[in-house]
Design a protein that fits this description.
Blueprint lengths: L5 H25 L1 H19 L4 H28 L5 H28 L1 H9 L2
Helix pairs in contact: 1-2, 2-3, 3-4
Length: 127
């Protein structure tokens, strides 16, 4: 290893990335909404590629929705851990986290309408 510790930091990064990937896999296996959102993101990115639309806004919108869904899943797990019974504040926490995903999803639909829809209509109408 070099004296600056870079080999160790790379190893730590890969280890952390492994934990993160395990979280993505868990969410995909257990969260129906996350699966739907993953496939919707692939569809949107594929459409952007086929339509030669700008990928950046589509990719960022997809990343935002998927990231918030992962945070929502994490928050729900923590709330269930600390408050196994019904509690009004637990409901508020879960509802607000779900609302964040809903708002991001609405924003992603607006991005799709702005970036993808005009190009798709031109293809369909042959103009």
């Amino acid at each position: 290893m070099r004296s600056d510790g870079s080999a160790l930091s790379v190893r730590r990064w890969w280890r952390s990335a492994g934990f993160a990937w395990a979280g993505v896999q868990h969410a995909y296996r257990t969260q129906g909404n996350f699966r739907v959102e993953c496939w919707a993101a692939l569809l949107a990115l594929g459409a952007a590629g086929l339509l030669r639309a700008p990928l950046t806004p589509v990719a960022l919108a997809c990343a935002l929705v998927l990231s918030l869904e992962l945070l929502n899943t994490a928050l729900e797990a923590v709330v269930d851990l600390v408050s196994p019974g019904v509690h009004p504040l637990a409901k508020v926490a879960k509802d607000v986290a779900a609302a964040a995903v809903l708002i991001a999803s609405a924003g992603a639909l607006l991005v799709a309408a702005d970036v993808l829809l005009p190009r798709l209509l031109r293809v369909l109408w042959g103009t």
